[in-house]
Each structure stands twice: as structure tokens, then as C-alpha cells.
Design a protein that fits this description.
Heat Shock Protein 90, 5-stranded parallel beta sheet, elongated, CheY-like_superfamily, transferase, EC 2.7.13.3, HATPase_C_sf
């Protein structure tokens, strides 16, 4: 907002400073006495005064503080008056969306309470809003409703304002006779019962009628009377508006120099009132006047200034609307998901209300020095408090997701480990439908925990992407196939893999994250695509700079959900027992691909079914000499499972991991902390240690450092230490010399098999 918009006029009304000082003194006394009702009345008086002076921002600020005081006092009579003035001030500041919401709220309250005067004022204001938006039919309906209401209540001034509004609407609809009739009804009302503002509006309407009739001399006389009245009222905005009406008449009558002076003064006053739209229209009219007298260069400069102001006003309106929508969405989500924090929220609101009352005391002193500084200080303070509260609530939600994911993983580890061990030891058990259903349910729990963990990491900006790691596409696709078959079991359709000729097998990419995304797409295709085959296609762009991966099914397609597929908690339509999941998979996958520098899109295939396409930057990698050897590793470890020391203080997690180790024939020893594992290390010297990251009273990383230091002192060769955690490996921790691998719970046979593929240590 321009600084000049809140500066007082150069020639203030006599006694104006005394009035403000008296009103602020009454406000201070009311606040000190803790009298909320008196505080609201004092704020209403200051609001009316600031509005009459054209200081819209100050009027809105005082009205807002008065609303809070009226609510505390439980007064239902002052509240509508304060909200009405606040809406009028917001409308003057081009904040139409906020003003509309207030007016609709006032109209609803008036209908509920039977307050016809309030309903008439709200209907009149909504008529003005619709007229400004160009909807003249709606504007006329609201105005006629207001006129009908003023026939019931004895409010001549309000009736005159409604008639003036109807006259303006009639002129815009090319119905001048109807406009003159409405204006004549307004003029017939007693002048002493009309406020200065209404009388000024009546003059402006007469001026519009005269201009519409082509009566230039009569219009000039009315315009000069209007300017004189505006100067007597000392309303900055009204002076600007009156001058903007007088100047074109002078220009058309040949008095160009005087017209230019009035145009420039009007534009300056509109700028002082922070009315960019009216200022833009005035500058455009000035440009036309300059053009008519052959001063084209000055005319062009004013046209540019007018367009710039209009663009600024439109940008401000869009920004206000977007911020209001975002605030509403965030507020709704916080109330729904964090209901348990209701008591804390109520306490916070009470503190904010108390703080606003204290702020009002500070504003009193600042008003004597300058209203602008006080309003800006209060606004910034309020915004900072709201932002801090929103961030605190959002962080609480994210932490809850992370904790929930962590707590789910330990029992899931026990279930998956025991079930997989039974499957590996007894082939008949692996074919048992009940056993397979139990294993699928356990893996579903694992999948949900992964979704919640990834969502919390994404929203904190902590999801780790290893863009420089090397990835072998053929291995990646095979792992996706194996994991999908393990997850879906007998309902897994056939997966057809097509790799374009010439596509490099080794690339630079985060293999784990890319496998997570592809696995999610394949599982989704199996769930929603029916029993038909799934196509997994790997290709590259014509210029060789982009890796293209497509997952296609032959199901019913995306339907009406394609525009919301990548929103959190959105799920497609499926049937039967396959309707599972958190609704987070596609949202997380799309954000992972974005973090990898690519993009994901979805569409329907021409031949039926859905297609998901991933495009990633293609950076070819060279395999190491060991990796380049054929058949370098099979599905099982080359020399069997070594002796393993498992350190975890959670019984369920330890039981599940032990089951996975037993299925590989590992010789396993268990411990719950450092003191329990030391004698086992001394006696059995296990070459592989699986160590939980978060023990009850100890840090797994610290235990790993102790073990490394102990081995160095004893001259022992490097043993493998694998960290097990319910969360992702921290991106800010360098563990290359400390840890050999990092497993996320629950540990499955497929994941542990990859660990055992590393050549044995002893």
C-alpha cells in the first residue's frame, strides 16, 4: 500500500486532531478498565472517523479490533456495525473477496435475527459489489431488495442511497428515464435527514444524469458544486472523485489547462486514498484530454502509467484471493487432523486476543505520531503469530506421521520375518491360502508404514536422493518383478518387459527410489487394471538425454480421477479385496520423480487402460571391473550366511529378524544393548552385526563407533556392520567408514538376500 494512502490531508478539518485525541483517550480508558463494550464503542467511533476521511486501511484496522472487543463483550448490536464498516473499507482497498464474505455473513445474520435495517445495508453493499463486477442484473436485484426493506424501516438516508444506486444501474443499462425517476425520488427526501456523504452521492448522480443528457453547462455547474462540497467535507477520496468528474467536462468545453490541473490533482488524491483503479481511470481520461490538444507524448506517458496501475490492482486482487483460499484450506485441514489439540488452540486464541488488546494500547500512542506505523506494526505482528501457529501445528502433524510409521515397523518386522521363515522352511505352507493372506497383510502394513515415512520426509524436505549412485536397469527391473510377485502373490498378472535397443544398462540414478516408484506403479496397475497383462517399457528420447519408462495396463482407465491422481489420499476405483492402501503412493512417487529432476504424467491409452510415464535425465554410467563380469552374483550368497549378531531391544523386531536369518541358515546370536553384546563379540567374533538405530537408552551409531574402535585396538580385520532403523538413512551423516549398509524395517528375505550377496568377510 502506498505510504501516501494513509497520510492526512494538507488542510485538516478544524478540531480533527482534537477529535482523534479525545476518542483515543476514551479508548485507552476503556482498555485500562477492562471494559470490552466501551472499547468496542470507542473503536467504532474511530472507524467512522477514519472512513469519513478516506483512510480505508486505518478504518479496517480499528473495525477489526472493535469486532474482537465486541465479541468479548458479547454485544450483538455493535458487531454488525463494525463488520459493515470493515467490509466497506476492504471494498475501497480493492479487497473485494473479503468484503463479499463479510457482506454475505451480515445478510445471513440479518435474516436470522429479523434485522431489516442491517439486511437493507448488506443488500445495498452487495449490489455495489455486483455492479463493480459487471453483473448489472444481480446488482439490480440486490438494490430492489434493499429498496423494499427501506420501505419498512424509517431510514431516509439509507433509502436515498439505495435510490441513487438504482439510478446508476439504470444509466448503465441504457434506461435514462428510469434513472431520472429514481433520482427524483431521492431528491424528494428531506435534505436535513441526509448525511454529507449521501448528499455528495446525490450530486454525483445528478452530474451523471446531466452528462448523459449532454447538458454540458448544467453538468459543469453541478460538478463545481460537488467539488466545493467535497472540500467542505475534507474527504480525500470524495475530492478526488469530484475532480475526476469535473475535469473531463472542462476538457470537452475547451478549458483544457484547468482540466489538466484538476486531472493531476484528482490522480494524486486517488493515490493518497490507495484507489489504484480510480487513479488508473483518471490517468486514462487525462491522456485522452492531452491527445485532444495534440500533446501526444504526455498522453502516451499517462496511458502507460494507467495500464501499470490497473495491472497492479488486478495482481493484488488475485493475490488476496489465493491467500484467502490457501488459508481456508489449511485451517480446515488443521481442524480435521489435529482435533486433539483443540484445548491448546483455544488457549492460543485467548492469548492472541489478550495480545491484540495490549497492541491496541500501543496503537494509541502510535496514532498520535502517525497511524501508518501503528497499523503496519499490528499487521506484521498478527501475520507472524498466525504463521508461527500454523507451522507448529503442521510440524506436529508431520512428527505424528513419522512416529506412527516407526511404531508400525517393529510388529510388522515380527510378522513378516516369522511368515517368511515358515514359507522358506515348508513349501506346503507357502501354498496355504491363509498363510499367503497373512503374509500379504503383513506386507501391506509394511507398505503403509513406508508411505507414512516417505510423506513425513517429503513434507520436511528431508527425503534423500542419491543422484550420483550407479543403477543397473536389468537388475532393477528384475527386483521390481520379484517384489511385486512377493507382494501380490497369486493375483499378480503377467509383467511384459520391453527394453529399447541401444539403451544403456548402467546409469546414474538412485536405484532404491526408482525401484520404489516402479514397484508402486506395477502394484497399482495390478490392482486397478484387472487380470490382464502389464507392460513395463524402457526407452530413451531421440536426443538420448532422457530416460523414458512407461507402465501400462489394460483395465478401465483413469476415468474422472486423472486430474487428482497425484494428490495425497486420492485412490482410484477398484473392487473386492484389492481396495487397499493409504492413497499416498502416487503422490509420493510423483514427488520422488520431481526430486530426481524428472516428471511423471498419467493418461488413458487409446486401446483402453491407463498409462503412467516417467521421464528422467539420462546419464550413462560405467560398471566397475567386478560388476562387468558375467554372472557376478546369483540370488543366494556365494558362501552361505555367516555368523550374525543381532542387537535390538524390541522383542517383536528381534523375533522377526531372527526368523529371516534362520530362513537363510544363519548362526544367529541376540543382544539387547552394548553390555549384552560384548561377551558375544568376545566369544563368537561374528563377521556380520545387525544393529538397531534407536535403542531405548543407547544410540546405535555410538555402539557402532565403540565396536569399530574395539576392533582397531585388537587388530581385528573390518567386520560388516549393518544399521537397521524404522527411518531413512540421514543425509547429513557421513557413515561410509562406520557402516556397511542401512536397512529399513521391516527386513524381508528379499532385502537381506541383497546384503548377503556381498562376498563373505571371513
Amino acid at each position: 500500500m502506498p505510504a501516501g494512502a494513509q497520510e492526512p490531508p494538507e488542510s485538516p478539518v478544524p478540531g480533527d486532531d482534537a477529535y482523534v485525541e479525545r476518542a483515543t483517550r476514551l479508548l485507552q480508558q476503556a482498555v485500562e478498565a477492562g471494559d470490552s463494550l466501551a472499547t468496542a464503542r470507542a473503536q467504532l467511533a474511530l472507524t467512522e472517523h477514519m472512513y469519513s476521511r478516506g483512510l480505508w486501511a486505518e478504518a479496517a484496522a480499528h473495525a477489526d479490533l472493535g469486532r474482537n472487543a465486541a465479541r468479548l463483550a458479547g454485544d450483538e448490536t455493535l458487531l454488525p456495525e463494525l463488520e459493515h464498516f470493515m467490509a466497506r473499507a476492504l471494498l475501497r482497498m480493492e479487497r473485494s473477496a473479503e468484503a463479499t464474505r463479510l457482506y454475505l455473513s451480515l445478510l445471513d445474520r440479518a435474516e436470522q435475527t429479523g434485522d431489516q435495517a442491517l439486511a437493507a445495508r448488506a443488500s445495498l453493499s452487495l449490489s455495489s459489489l455486483q455492479g463493480r463486477a459487471g453483473d448489472l442484473e444481480s446488482a439490480q436485484r440486490f438494490a430492489e431488495s434493499a429498496l423494499q426493506l427501506t420501505g419498512v424501516v424509517d431510514l431516509p438516508d439509507l433509502r436515498a442511497r439505495v435510490l441513487i444506486n438504482l439510478a446508476r444501474i439504470a444509466l448503465l443499462q441504457d434506461r435514462p428515464e428510469q434513472g431520472r425517476a429514481h433520482l427524483a425520488q431521492a431528491q424528494a427526501l428531506a435534505a436535513e435527514e441526509l448525511t454529507d456523504q449521501t448528499r455528495s452521492s446525490l450530486l454525483m448522480a445528478e452530474l451523471n444524469i446531466a452528462a448523459n443528457d449532454g447538458a454540458t453547462e448544467r453538468a459543469l455547474a453541478i460538478a463545481r458544486r460537488t467539488v466545493a462540497l467535497a472540500e467542505d467535507l475534507d474527504s480525500v477520496f470524495f475530492q478526488a472523485f469530484a475532480l475526476s468528474q469535473l475535469a473531463p467536462l472542462l476538457c470537452r468545453s475547451g478549458q483544457s489547462e484547468e482540466a489538466i490541473v484538476h486531472f493531476e490533482r484528482s490522480a494524486a488524491l486517488f493515490e493518497q486514498s490507495d484507489a489504484p483503479v480510480e487513479q488508473s481511470e483518471t490517468l486514462m481520461a487525462l491522456a485522452q484530454c492531452l491527445h485532444d490538444i495534440q500533446r501526444h507524448e504526455q498522453a502516451y506517458a499517462n496511458v502507460l502509467a494507467s495500464r501499470s496501475l490497473l495491472q497492479e490492482a488486478h495482481s493484488r486482487q488475485r493475490s488476496d484471493s489465493m491467500q484467502a483460499s490457501l488459508a481456508a484450506f489449511q485451517s480446515e485441514r488443521q481442524l480435521r487432523e489435529l482435533a486433539r489439540l483443540g484445548d491448546e488452540e483455544q488457549l492460543l486464541r485467548a492469548r492472541v486476543s489478550e495480545q491484540q488488546l495490549r497492541i491496541s494500547l500501543m496503537v494509541i500512542g502510535l496514532l498520535l505520531l502517525g497511524a501508518l506505523a501503528g497499523v503496519l506494526w499490528m499487521r506484521n505482528r498478527s501475520i507472524a503469530q498466525q504463521r508461527a501457529a500454523q507451522q507448529q501445528l503442521e510440524q506436529t502433524r508431520i512428527d505424528l506421521l513419522a512416529r506412527t510409521s516407526h511404531e508400525i515397523r517393529n510388529p510388522a518386522q515380527g510378522l513378516i520375518g516369522l511368515l517368511e521363515r515358515q514359507s522358506s522352511n515348508d513349501p506346503r505352507r507357502a501354498e496355504d491360502p491363509d498363510h499367503r493372506s497373512a503374509l500379504a497383510a503383513a506386507r501391506m502394513i509394511q507398505h503403509l508404514a513406508n508411505d507414512y515415512l516417505d510423506l513425513s520426509l517429503l513434507e520436511q524436505g528431508k527425503l534423500r536422493i542419491c543422484s550420483d549412485a550407479r543403477c543397473r536397469l536389468s537388475e532393477l527391473i528384475e527386483h521390481v518383478r520379484q517384489l511385486a510377485e512377493s507382494f501380490l502373490g497369486e493375483v499378480m498378472p503377467a509383467l511384459n518387459v520391453t527394453v529399447a535397443p541401444g539403451l544403456a544398462d548402467w546409469i546414474h540414478a538412485d536405484a532404491d527410489r526408482l525401484m520404489q516408484v516402479l514397484l508402486n506403479l506395477v502394484i497399482n496397475a495390478a490392482r486397478y487394471g484387472g487380470d490382464d497383462e502389464i507392460d513395463l517399457i524402457l526407452d530413451q528420447s531421440d536426443d538420448g538425454k532422457c530416460l523414458i519408462i512407461r507402465v501400462e495396463d489394460r483395465g478401465p482407465g483413469l476415468g474422472n480421477a486423472d486430474t487428482q491422481l497425484f494428490d495425497p489420499y486420492v485412490r482410484g476405483e477398484a473392487s473386492g479385496e484389492n481396495v487397499r492402501g493409504s492413497g499416498l503412493g502416487l503422490s509420493i512417487s510423483a514427488r520422488i520423480i520431481d526430486a530426481m529432476g524428472g516428471r511423471m504424467r498419467a493418461c488413458n491409452r487409446d486401446r483402453g487402460g491407463a498409462r503412467f510415464e516417467i521421464r528422467l535425465p539420462l546419464r550413462v554410467a560405467e560398471p566397475t571391473p567386478e560388476e562387468a563380469l558375467p554372472d557376478r552374483a546369483g540370488d543366494a550368497p556365494a558362501a552361505g550366511c555367516p555368523r550374525v549378531l543381532l542387537v535390538d531391544d524390541d522383542r517383536f523386531a528381534r523375533m522377526g529378524i531372527r526368523a529371516v536369518l534362520d530362513s537363510f541358515g544363519c548362526e544367529t546370536y541376540e543382544a539387547a544393548d552394548w553390555s549384552a553384546m560384548q561377551p558375544l563379540v568376545e566369544e563368537h567374533d561374528p563377521p556380520l552385526v545387525l544393529l538397531d538405530r534407536h535403542l531405548t537408552n543407547e544410540d546405535g551409531l555410538e555402539i557402532a563407533r565403540r565396536l569399530r574402535e574395539r576392533d582397531r585396538r585388537n587388530g581385528r580385520s573390518r567386520r560388516r556392520i549393518v544399521m537397521i532403523s524404522g527411518s531413512q538413512r540421514p543425509s547429513d551423516l557421513d557413515q561410509d567408514d562406520l557402516l556397511d549398509d542401512w536397512l529399513i524395517k521391516p527386513v524381508t528375505r528379499a532385502r537381506f538376500a541383497l546384503v548377503l550377496k556381498t562376498p563373505p568377510i571371513d
